[in-house]
């Protein structure tokens, strides 16, 4: 079961540390308006239902504290190979192409212990920022990297809740 803050489900974007801080900053800046999760890893294994339109969720920091509140504007479950470029763009993480998005997400989920194939069910979640609780963290150089896969300076790794 996912943690709750003020009765709302939480979204811990990416992995703790620099990656989460950068993803949270993208949400607060309005650049990140979507995130991807795996049905098996993030929903079935956690006994969580899919989000629904209008549901409010809390974006959290590494300590589970409130960073922002978002409202779900769309939820779609698609095979990994069918996730569209428009969704990758809405994630706001600077992917060069849909193939780039797929490669980054494959590596991310593999590092989380789950091997993705073209038929793996991906939850494509769209949201809008409704209640920022603090200023976006400053990035030291604009580069976003994590232990999974180094990225060019204008991109960051995919998130898991996606």
Word description of this protein:
The chain is α+β, with helices and mostly antiparallel strands and 162 residues long. 23% of the residues lie in helices and 26% in strands. It is built from four helices and six strands; from the N terminus they run ββαβαββααβ. Strands 1-2-4-5-6-3 form a six-stranded mixed β-sheet. Strand 4 and strand 5 form a beta hairpin. It is globular and about 35 Å long. The two termini are 15 Å apart. The C terminus is likely disordered.
Quick synopsis:
With 162 residues, this protein is α+β, with helices and mostly antiparallel strands. The chain has four helices and six strands, in the order ββαβαββααβ.
Largest sheet: 6 strands, mixed
Helix and strand sequence: EEHEHEEHHE
* Main β-sheet, spatial strand arrangement: 1-2-4-5-6-3
End-to-end gap = 15 Å
Estimate percent helicity.
10-25%
Q: How big is the Rg?
A: 14 Å
- Average residue-wise pLDDT: 84
Structural class: alpha+beta
Estimate the global geometry from the Cα principal axes.
Answer: globular
DSSP helical segment count: 4
Q: Could you give the topology of this structure?
A:
Elements lengths: L3 E2 L2 E4 L6 H12 L4 E5 H6 L11 E5 L5 E14 L5 H6 L7 H14 L9 E12 L30
Parallel strand pairs: 2-4
Antiparallel strand pairs: 1-2, 3-6, 4-5, 5-6
């Amino acid at each position: 079961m996912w943690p709750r803050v003020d009765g709302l489900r939480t979204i811990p974007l990416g992995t703790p540390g620099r990656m989460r801080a950068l993803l949270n900053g993208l949400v607060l800046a309005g650049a990140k308006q979507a995130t991807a999760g795996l049905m098996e890893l993030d929903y079935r294994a956690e006994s969580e239902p899919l989000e629904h339109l209008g549901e409010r969720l809390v974006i959290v920091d590494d300590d589970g504290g409130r960073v922002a509140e978002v409202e779900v504007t769309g939820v779609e479950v698609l095979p990994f190979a069918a996730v569209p470029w428009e969704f990758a763009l809405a994630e706001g993480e600077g992917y060069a192409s849909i193939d780039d998005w797929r490669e980054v997400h494959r590596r991310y989920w593999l590092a989380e212990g789950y091997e993705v194939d073209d038929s793996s069910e991906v939850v494509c979640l769209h949201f809008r920022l409704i209640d920022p609780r603090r200023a976006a963290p400053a990035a030291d150089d604009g580069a976003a990297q994590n232990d999974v896969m180094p990225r060019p300076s204008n991109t960051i790794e995919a998130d898991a809740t996606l």
